[in-house]
Amino acid sequence: MALQVLKKTSAAEFLKMAETIPIADVRSPSEFAAGHIPGAFNIPLFNDKEREAVGIKYRKEGRSSAIISGLELTGPLMHEKLREALKIAREGRILVHCWRGGMRSEAMAWLFSLGDLNTEVLDGGYKSYRHHILASLSQRRKTVVLGGMTGSSKTQILHQIKKLGHKTIDLEGIANHKGSAFGALGQLPQPSTEHFANLLFDQWKKVDDNFPVWLEDESRNIGTVFMPDEFYSNMQASPTIVLLMDIGIRLPRLIAEYSTYPPEHLIESIKRISKRLGGDNTRGAISAVEAGDFAKAIEITLKYYDKAYMFGIGQKPKKNIICIKTETDDIENNTLKVLEAAGKISW
Which residue in 27, 312, 330, 343 is deepest, having the highest Cβ count within 10 Å? Predict the structure, then answer.
């Protein structure tokens, strides 16, 4: 059987092919966990300890010694790696990448070809993929940012906007965090900042450049996750529709949401912003939670968040801000108000 000639593919073409062909990420488990192409399967050539050992061998003794060491470590298990590849391959095809498109992906492509799999390797590896997606996320495109103080139901309005046929990306949904000190309550673990960008690009690439995409206004970080710098800068320069809603209108929804969490979790969240709240407000909010007075606790913390949010809005170009006053927290009603305001934006 003649072995295939190694085929290397650019990041852009690789991602197009990945829409129908499975990806085998052959980096170590810890590399994969830190960030990977969404939908990829991890079939590591080396585990983390083996990768470290081979890397030391390469630096001290050179390529040939590293290859021999790698074969000693992985040789007995190569049949298992081929079996995994055969399971995930589609119509005899599979895509492969490692970190830089070097020895690991080339070795695995050779192995997979032994199983009659038509294999293509990502030229430049995961590193080139990262360059590609960050460059894409840096591009300016039509974007509308939905703003409003905590408790304005921005996420629910964003989802309603999507139901009405508009393009949206839920940044908080990708980050598994609602953005405030209380944002981790009830959420799955957050992705790394690296993987957040990968997940963001996976949605970003699906949006037609001819249509505006709606995003919720956020700080540079959402919990422990940070947005790509250029992406965030472009958000700051985009038209922002700010929904203005009194505290009294926002309180019932927030009470209904956060009173379901254990008091100790709420208190931990309050303590995380204690320096910003100040000693008296922190003690007052904690005492209110302990007494079951969630309205008082939320009102104390809202005053801090409202002040911080309005300061942030003040940093945006005034010509890009459209403020809407509402007297209701009805999602459908406020969605229509927001869309009506968006209709006045000239692109």
Answer: 27
How much is the pLDDT for 105?
94
pLDDT at 1: 45
- Which residue has better confidence, 22 or 4? 22
pLDDT at 13: 98
Query: For residues 220 and 227, is the Cβ–Cβ distance under 8 A?
Result: yes
Is the pLDDT at 2 greater than 60? The verdict is no
48-52, 61-65, 248-252, 300-304: which range is least confident on average?
A: 61-65
Residues 111, 144: one domain?
no
Q: At what angle do helices 294-314 and 279-290 cross, to 10 degrees?
A: 140
CATH number of the CATH domain containing 178: 3.40.50
Active-site option among 37, 66, 98, 289: 98
Catalytic (active site) residue 323 = no
Other C-beta atoms within 10 Å of 41: how many?
Answer: 16
- Report pLDDT for 172: 97
103 with 166, same domain: the answer is no
- Quickly state the pLDDT bin for 132 (edges 50, 70, 90): very high
Q: 132: which 2 tokens?
A: 């590609």
Based on the domain organization, do 27 and 65 belong to the same domain?
Answer: yes
Q: How many domains does the chain have?
A: 2
133, 164, 189 — which closes off a domain? 133
Neighbours of 229 (CB within 10 A): 12
1 is a domain residue = no
Q: Where are the alpha helices (DSSP H) in the chain?
A: 11-17, 29-34, 48-61, 63-74, 78-88, 103-114, 125-137, 154-163, 171-175, 193-204, 229-236, 247-258, 263-272, 274-277, 279-290, 294-314, 331-342
7, amino acid identity: K
User: Does the residue 2 lie in any domain?
Assistant: no
Distance CA 117, CA 6 (A): 12
In-domain check, residue 89: yes
Beta-bridge mates of residue 146 = 216, 241
Co-location of 68 and 147 in the same domain: no
Q: Which of 77, 107, 133 is the last residue of a domain?
A: 133
Query: Residue 4: what pLDDT?
Result: 58
Q: Give the amino acid at 40.
A: A
